[in-house]
């Protein structure tokens, strides 16, 4: 390296000399012409007089400037080329889900808002890394318990007339949740709002008809596939996270639950039960105090809580209780997250 540096310096140092020589040559020629034309002593004296030394040109700053310029251009090109390619979006896809302060791994959503039934593959190609994180299909960590206090707020049976109240509450606290949605609530189009505000969309059932869904594993697959296709119409992809109506083991499939679980696995679906229930299935709905107390008692000793709640028209008190529920978990040091396929699986 030192030799190279010296070599470079040698080249650089020759520049001024050559330039000087050229200057001298031209000057000499001019002087010679002058001598022939005037033939005066004065001119000869002038010719013989010591030539003023031309100022030595220092090319070093120029060379350094060029090198810096080249490096700058290379850096700019490198940065430009290494920038991730922005996902292609349909013109109506202008979501900006949140400058979230949530512990959730989800952020803004630019999921396709295409209403076309684009294939899952092409839709996924439009998702950012964070969005794909919500869609991960690997179950490599499915049975690894988290080592931090985390709570997954989940809402079944929505969307409903309370969905936007819940969304507003979540946004106010900078928290994301997971919806296990149904197809026949009359509000399925809200899945777009849920998703674009950074929450997770998972599948529950199309009609919540236990007799049909648990009539056979084939019926179950058909029903989940149906709600999956319906969601795809709004989001441009088909979620792979599901929750069995009534849980993966219930009174309708208790003798044959494994066959239904296997059917789900065969479809590449990841199912989630729960380990905390708000207890909002009663009719009429419980009041807010009761719901909050249910949460507190059910969460005792829970380090990673998957909380079952409902987002359905008769469950308005659940939406009303949500701020107190969030504040309770915050006071206990929990962080909040959405379910993804490799979240700890709460399986009955
Ligand atoms: Zn349900």
Q: State the assembly state of the protein chains.
A: single chain
CATH class category of the largest domain:
Alpha Beta
Summarize the helix and strand pattern as letters. HHHHHEHEHEHHEHEEHEHE
**What value does the average pLDDT take?**
73
Kindly identify the CATH topology of the largest domain: TIM Barrel
CA-atom Rg in angstroms: 36 Å
Descriptive report:
By secondary structure, the chain is α/β, with parallel strands linked by helices. It folds into two domains: 2-82, no CATH class; 120-336, TIM Barrel. Helices cover 45% and strands 10% of the residues. The protein is built from twelve helices and eight strands. The protein has helices at 2-38, 41-48, 60-82, 120-124, 129-133, 163-173, 191-196, 210-213, 217-235, 257-266, 288-298, 316-331, and strands at 150-158, 178-182, 200-205, 241-242, 270-271, 276-277, 304-310, 335-336. Strands 1, 2, 3, 6, 7 and 8 form a six-stranded parallel beta sheet that branches. The chain has a two-stranded parallel sheet with strand order 4-5. β2, α7 (191-196) and β3 form a beta-alpha-beta unit. α6 runs parallel beside α12 (316-331) and α9 runs parallel beside α10. The radius of gyration is 36 Å and the shape is extended. The model is unreliable at 1-49 and 78-144 (pLDDT under 50). The structure holds zinc ion.
